[in-house]
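Dear colleague,

Following up on yesterday's call, I've attached the two folding results inline so they're easy to grep. Please treat them as preliminary; we haven't cross-checked anything against experimental data yet. The first protein's sequence and structure tokens come first.
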Amino acid sequence: MSNSVLTSAGAALIAQCQLNDEVLNIDQMVFADIDDLDTSATPSTDTEMPSIDDIVHQCAATKAGLLNSNSIVYSAILDSLVGDFYINFMGLYCSEHDVLVAVCVMPRHRKYATSSFTLGNSLIKNFSLEITDVSNLTGITVSADTWQMDFTARLVQIDERERLSNYDIYGSKYFFDDGFSIVESDGTYTLQAGIGYIDGIRVKLDAAKDLTITDDTIQYVYIDACLNGDITGVEALWSVEVSDTEQSNYVDDASQQHFVELLGTIAADGTITDSRESDDSSIIGEQDIESQINEHNTDPDAHPDTFDPLGAADEAIEANMLTADKTLTFDNSMTAAEIQALIDAVPKNLGGYTLTMQFADGTFALVSTLSLIGFYGGILNVYGSADDFAYSTSKSVQLMYTGAGSTALLFARVSAQVYIYGITIGNNAEIASFMAIRTNQCANIHIRYCVLRGQSDDISDYHYGIINYQSQLTLQDSYINNLHFGLYSEYGGDNTILGCYCGTNTYDMWVSSSKITAENFGKSNYPNSSYTKPGGTINGHASDRVGQITTNQRTTMQDALLMRGSSITKADYPLLVSFAENSSFIKTAAELAADETLRTFFTEDADDDTILYLPDWRGVSTRGLDPSGTFDPDGASRSLMSYQADAYASHTHTINYGISGSSSTESVYGDTDNNTLTGTKPTNASGGTETRGKNVAVNYFIYYN
């Protein structure tokens, strides 16, 4: 549930614009994560712009459209490159008048970005306003697109209708055979594997589950089930709970309806009572099914012996969709036809799982196109060697097309998330209009750490790296060479290019009449390109920033880690670990134990070689390395990232004193014969607890991607 309100300042601005016949331009959407925000209550009309510390993302409204003559919707797409943060507040903002026009609060939820080995989520945020004659007020005349409309209520109705249909058949609870029954063996209580329905929600336990039981009182064993869905699908969530009190249906904090049914009880003396049978006598039970089967079996010739009314549906489902993650492994002894046959044998419905096509090191001679068509409902990986998951100009896996057609890899009508990592895709022959990759009406194609290249320096035959047709495509950290066009997207599509590099013999990075977003793009020599690099001269690729250290006033940064000595798992951050190893910035646990100042480096774990500790830069400032020692007297003996303790330069103080005759004090003594002064006397203490310069507190971050 979410609650929204027009702010007092927003209402005043609307009235002012209507009075003066001015256009109201709501151009920004603001997202925040506010501590202790009551998302169940309607926000105050006096709500102001969140503080800079609470704002997690602010962007231009992707699109605005009319729902009707008095309603408008503003939309923002937070794609998989945006994150990581949480959201519980959304606002519409007019930057022209510096006014927060409307606000909406909602249950706190996470937005996370795609990293090297983690799939990010994409969110579409819509905010609708009802204002009289809104088109004239805002100048918006186009209708809202279908993706701007909230179909959630309709989808929930569909899910509920299906649940009720199951309920009409199976009642409040129904279990096949011994599924979810409680058994005891040597004092251990176990729930049997099987399938059942809880208030119309299908539940399946793949393996027996042990129960934790308290011996001194009666124990109730319940199953708790609910439907959890969004715009992309719905799944049954369930758990088994053991309690010493009776439970019932409830609604959780996210407004999800939970159905709770008793599986059985275990008495203090260990006696088990099976409570799986439903009290509803109207459902179609197993006995009803068996009686109907017996009736039909009076004519055995009319019915095959293999008829299985209880198992056939499950077998049909498993035959037409993945039921677990699956990996296909290809080596270069296989022909394109053999590889294609394995691909075609996999169900198109990935069932929410991941299908990985793993190519072994070597050169694959493809005499025909590898076609991946119609996959949906999961993740599709096309991987080379994990050692090549970084920017480079060559890869251990090479898919080289030599066929009579024109395309090496074809993706068509794929709505699954696609990741193509660490592969060279090209051709070894003079092929007119060669295409390394062609996409046709696909949802999300991510190409990263790849090399796309033509056969030779002769690019007159119009070789293409990618032809994108009406697909959403991201090309990142890749190398393009010996191609007439790196990306050709004249047929619609949404293209993002991040941190790629173009070789000396590519005529044009792209030709496109559709959307192009480009950042950190390095190019070498294609003077005829219509593309002007954003932000001035940029050379290199996005991975250049791995290991770079920056400061920020926030506690989190996208693609960066806080430098406070925390531990990371090496496998999760391969680029950062490679940077640290190649730069000799890693110290051993023994070295750190002997010298605590080495905390400013990466340090290893004494017992676990899969763990690495980040540098700890709390409370220190930076100083430019001076190998000559001209400005830093220790500079000749220092290395990058080394620690230098605080100090003050050698100096003297003066002390005034007087003496007469043979007098003496407790710590300054006079010579009675010569009236000379010897000994020491401390000055009074002054100052703080450390020597420091003027400073401002910030956080240090290091980029891992």
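Below is the second protein, in the same order (sequence, then structure):
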Amino acid sequence: MKKRWNDIKIIGLRFILIIIPLAIISIVGMNYVVNMEVASVKTFINSEQQLKNNIFDFMINDVIDEAFADLFTIRNSYILHDYFEDPSTDNLNELNKLFVRKSINRPQFDQIRFINVDGMEIARVNNHVDDMIVSQEYLQDKSNRYYFSETINLPEGTVYMSPFDLNIENGEVEEPYKPMIRFATPVYYNNQLQGIIIMNYLGQNIISIFEESEMLESDYFKKPMLINSEGYYLSDAEEIKTFGFMFEEHQQETLSIIEPKLYNEIIKNKEKDGSIEIENIMYYYSKISFNESTHPIKATDDYYWLTISSFDTNTLTILNTTNLVNKNWIIAIISIINSLIVLIIIFIHYYLTKNKRHIARIDSVMDQMTDATLIIDSNNKIQAVNKKFATWVNMNIQECIGKNIKEFLKYTINHERPTNVEEIIDKKGECSYNFWFKASNGMLTPKSVLVTLLPKEKNQENSYLHVISDNIKMIREEANLNVYNENNLANENLLVELMNDSLSDGKNFSVIYLSINNYNRLITEYNKDIYNKMVQKFIGENMISLRMIDYVAQLSESRFII
């Protein structure tokens, strides 16, 4: 014991003598590595923000698609044509009823109106009120409103999209404030201009989509900003700054005045999106232009939106841990896992709002994921899987859909899935557990499952996203215990562990002992590599006759247990 203590003291002294010069070198080297890592993280976040901006752009285009479809449905309806043919009270009532039905089916629209060529409202329905049809004495003259003059002279088939502003009723800003975008199209009958159909879209939906699509689960990102082409705030952490152009006292609340350096850099840069660093603040911006849309749409000249997100670069060094500096591959794994988990809740918020398209889009995203991924409903029925999962279980994707997840437990050993997954997710937001995956060739691989609740519409059942990845920690722990051998079969340590688990669960099982005779002669006549290939072929052929719940362990070079 004394000799061992002396050895420890000598080793400690030498360590101290060596560590001082190494510490100096390490500090210099670490600063270099950290700077490199910070640059790498900036590049990664830039790509991530571009993806988020693309998602928001995609969702806005979907709003426009929806508005086009609804406008043209009304424009082409026989009910509207009947009114043009005979503007009687009965036909007017039928037109109002059409607007009511459309409003009920489209809660995102606040108003639907028909305005004649003189600018007078002829039919108007207000959504989200008891008396939806506005009586004739309350209809208003809109001939002096910009959206009427902009729309009435458009070619047939063109849709006007108004700037994003606050709703005005009877010449004053409506309270409580109601952000609004108007979609309008001229209406012709027998080649004669009859007026315009206009639908008021509730802009708060746009703001919610923007905030959800741009949200990142980290403390260092500030709340994103949505800016119009004049520099006014449409969405910001300080709500008092929003829609300043609607109020005399807030006319100076613009990006060009509050943050002139940022505004000038964005204007100077002609690219659609990019990044700018000003005084240790990294900004990411993207421009959404509506006059460049593929639709026959007419917006106010040079009207566009800017999405801007930002974070303090000084926080990056805090976020970089020792593992982040010394093990770059961990950064890649963590970063990839975190990015993939946010597109599905966003396109999902969009996809789940479009039942016909959200499944195909989810499948597209899932197929791009490197981990096995599936979606399960509250009854444990599989709704969607990606190719990686289907390959694991030797099925195609369509064969997996609709099956109960319990049917796939035969591919697992020591499955630790909690019985109260839903309760855990309600409390923690997610649930994770581990299991051993057993491939058809007998190989056992430790896996981790991360379960999260997908966003849903009201009255829809819960759906849960399962992402199955290699359990790096378990692989390392098992590698240190030597539970694998060169044939990728469990050894005696893992065999004992699995058998003890079966015994503790009260399961019955049988054990078959196999031994290869003349091992030494085989090694002498051939070599170790050829022998291992013979063993792998032997195991592979015999696994065909075994069940998925069976497994093979190799106790030594020539002894096996089934």
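For the second protein, one point worth flagging: The chain is about 45% helix and 20% strand.

Best wishes,
A.L.
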